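Appendix B. Chain record.
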Amino acid sequence: MPSQSIIQKPSRVNRAHNRLETAIERLETAIRKRAADDGGGNGGGANQGSELVSLQAEIRSLRGENIDLKDTHRQVSERLDAAVHRLKGLVGD
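C-alpha cells predicted for this chain:
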C-alpha cells in the first residue's frame, strides 16, 4: 500500500488558542503602552477609565473563551482516546 502524505490543518482548538494568545499579547502591549504614556502623572481622566473598563471586559471575555476551549479540548481528547481504544480492540492489539 503506498504511503500517503497527510497534511494536517491546525485544529479548531489550536486556531482558537492562537487567537487567544494574540489577543492577550495585544492586551499586554496596550497595558504597557498605557503605563508608559501615563508615566508623567498627567492623568487621562474618564478616557483612561473607560479604556480600562473595556480592557477588563475583554480580559473576562477571553478568559471565558479559554475555559470553553479547555473544555472542548478535554471532550475531544476523551473522544479520541475512546476511538483509539475501540480501534485497538477491533485490531486485536
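Further analysis of this model is presented in Appendix C.
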